[in-house]
Amino acid sequence: MPAQQETTLTTVLSDRLLEVPDYQRPYAWTTKQLEDLWEDLDLVGPKGQHYFGTLVLRDVRDDDGEVRTSLDEAGTTLRHSEVVDGQQRVTTCVVLLDRIRRRLAGLAGDGIEGAAAIAESLRRSFGVVVVDNVSVPRLRLGQDLNEYWTSVVLGDEQYVGGALIGGAARLAGAVAFFDARLIELANGVDPTEFVTRLRELQRRVTAGLRVLVYEVASAAEVGVIFETLNERGRPLTELEKTKNYLLYLARQIPDGRSDDLAAFINSRWAGIFSALARSDGGMDDQLLRVHWLATQNADLRSWQGVASIKRAFDRSRYVSASTRIIPSSFRPDEPKAAFDHLYSEVKDYVASLHHCAHFVAEMFDPHAQFVAFGSGRERARRASAALARSGVVALYRPLLCAARLRYPNDGDFYADLADVLDRYSARVFVISQRRANAGQAKLASLAFDLFKKRTTPEEVLDAVSVLLWRYASDTQVRAALESETENWYARRGHKYFLYEHELSRMGSGEQLQQFGYFIKKGNEQRTTEHILPQNPDPGAACWWDSFSKEEHVALRHALGNLVLTLDNSQYSNKCFADKRGAPLGAGSTPKACYAQSSFHQERELAAFDTWTPDTIRARQKQLAEWALERWAVSVPGTDVLEPQDAEPEIEAEGAEDEACVESSA
To answer: How distant is the alpha carbon of residue 417 from its chain centre?
Structure first.
């Protein structure tokens, strides 16, 4: 295994001459990366440390296999090492340290005591060292850049060539960037204070930035370490990245609260992972999004993974202004206040996320106990189970999570909310076939307002009903249900519809297979029966005498022609009379037929003498009336609400929206 250690740039260069191999890409950092580094240095504080990244080194060996070494003018043995990875970081730091050196040298020329010695020390340690009476750079770049690097960037020559391109142009950009920052550092202070600031900046670069150094001995080990660094195995989830970032923030606190907060984060994360293990797969990153929309920002566009967490808990908010590279505050209590905020805000966020993880795990679990609820527990369980069967889950999680976070013991409110959302799913998605994210922005907004106590539970329930009505009024729902041209069989939602219809017919003590049985792979087709067969035998007069070719095409997949069953192969293409059969009488032999089915809706078909286009239409109207009662919605003032499309929604929300409605496809 490659040897590894966490260390500083000073330690890395103390006994080495580094070389960037020619096969590595040239210098590539632009203003974005330079600004990020400067911010890291600004926020690290006078005694803080910041993990800067990984550095992979490989000793250069002579033909005889011995590590190549050189002896500098002070008698120090220097190993020659290739920078296999991390050359961009090291190069940038050397550029910055050299610009600091030049400023100190200029101050020495103005007579500032001690500046010359510091400048010379920087030159020997990070810039140029004398080996065998020849000045060589501590860091040598690839062949195409090394001449410009040594003579212009680290040296004192003026560049007189043509326009700079590629890596040389970016090196020149880094020089200009740091020169501009150092000018800002000098503004408004005397030379002595400027030296103090330069020394502090130097310390932050050489001792505050921490690098994880891997030392590899062979090309094979280089391959191993790249395999690890490039995360070709399982990449970190957003949830894991969030935990790491919060632990990093905890590390910034200089007192005992650092370890306390880190222990709290680790403990709660263990609970989060345990809770998510009970829920459907893929919930790790969804949890962060659900919690974010419910508690941080309801704008759907605001969620950008761990980047959003970093913005919400930007470490610049928790760094004392008096500890910045350019101090801007001298209040004695200001550093303490910054860390007070860090400790309390991160702890509150983690505690809330931990609770949300457990709530998410319970949302659609048919065996959820809802132990925090008193009254409403059973209703909450039933409504949650029905909502889960609709196939719509992701859309509602922020609102349901907000309800639990704000009213953790109110089972009646949660049951009412799950119930109205079940009606929303049935009417808006399963029946009216709205797009998968219909109402998403409004539902997220309601979640956030509920969590912030800007609205009451009663107002939320009314608002969901109003939104539901605008997407799927009774007129729209009836039209969709009675349509003779709609292919209901192509919708996965027809299973949900027929299953709920069967449940409504059942009496106390009756049992029905779990809904999962009917949508299980392999069962999809055989658990839906076409009363009028999809493909009747060409000579089957019992069907063709009642249906024209056009009527068959139009009505075979109509809702009124579908019924839930356990195995439709037992009915095949039989005539209706054979499918209908007769109730099991004394001394008769059981047979597969509607009249003897264990399902109410099949037995109800036995009441029909024939099966015709009018019969299908009549049954479809009956189903429509049942659905309007089963998923009825009461909206105050519906007489003045015009059915219409609700506010514009986000069309592209990625996989999250793809998963919102699986039963209405």
So the answer is: 26
Q: Write down the pLDDT at residue 531.
A: 97
Cβ(268)–Cβ(350) under 8 Å?
yes
Query: Would you state the structure tokens that stand for residue 444, as one six-digit string?
Result: 């997220």
| Structure-block tokens of residue 166 | 């590629």
Angle at 210 between CA 265 and CA 71, to 5 degrees: 160
Tokens of 632: 């009825």
Residue 251, CA atoms < 13 Å, CB-side half-sphere:
13
| DSSP H helical ranges for 138-231 | 143-148, 166-186, 191-203, 219-229
Residue range 6-63, pLDDT digits in tens: 889 999 998 999 999 887 788 989 999 999 999 989 888 777 788 888 888 989 988 8
For the chain, the domains span 3-229, 238-363, 377-473+645-658, 487-640
Pick left, alpha or beta for residue 637 (phi over 0 → left; psi -120 to 50 → alpha; otherwise beta). left
Q: What is the pLDDT of residue 333?
A: 56
Helix 397-406 to helix 283-295 angle (10° resolution) is: 60
Q: 624 to each of 474, 620, 632, how far by Cα in Å?
A: 10, 6, 11
CB-based contacts of 446, cutoff 8 Å, min separation 6: 399, 402, 455, 460, 463, 464
Cα-Cα-Cα-Cα dihedral sign, residues 453, 458, 464, 466: negative
User: H/E element holding 16?
Assistant: strand 16-19
Question: Tell me, what's the pLDDT at 473?
Answer: 95
- Burial class (CB within 10 angstroms; exposed 0-12, middle 13-18, buried 19+) of 223: exposed
Q: Are 352 and 384 in contact (CB under 8 A)?
A: no
Q: How far apart are CA 244 and CA 320, in angstroms?
A: 22
Backbone phi and psi for residue 625, each to the nearest 5 degrees, phi listed first: -65, -40
Q: Which residues share a beta bridge with 8? A: 210
Q: Which of 397, 480, 472, 394 is nearest to 437 (CA)?
A: 394
Rounded CA separation 436/25 (Å): 45
The predicted pLDDT at position 655 comes to 36
Supply 602's token pair: 């099949």
pLDDT in tens, 246-263: 988 888 888 899 889 999
Which residues have a Cβ under 8 Å from the Cβ of 221 and sit 6 or more positions away?
Answer: 2, 58
Tokens found for residue 626: 């049942």
Q: Which of 21, 371, 412, 47 is nearest to 203 (CA)?
A: 47
Instruction: Please answer whether residues 283 and 238 qualify as being in contact, where contact means their C-beta atoms are separated by less than 8 angstroms.
Output: no
- Which residue stretches of the chain have pLDDT < 50? 1, 231-233, 639-665
Instruction: Point out which residues pair with 51 in neighbouring strands.
Output: 210
- Spatial contact of 237 and 318, defined as CB atoms under 8 Å apart: no
Distance separating the N- and C-terminal Cα atoms of the chain: 51
How far does CA 66 lie from the centroid of its chain? 49
Do 563 and 576 meet the contact criterion of CB atoms below 8 Å apart?
Answer: no
Q: What's the pLDDT score for residue 106?
A: 93
Close Cβ partners of 372 (under 8 Å, ≥ 6 residues apart): 408, 409, 411
- Write down the pLDDT at residue 650: 35
pLDDT of residue 4: 63
Q: What is the DSSP string of 441-494?
A: HHHHHHHHHHHTTSS-HHHHHHHHHHHHHHHS-HHHHHHHHH-SS--GGG-THH
Question: Nearest 10 degrees: CA dihedral of 33, 37, 42, 44?
Answer: 140
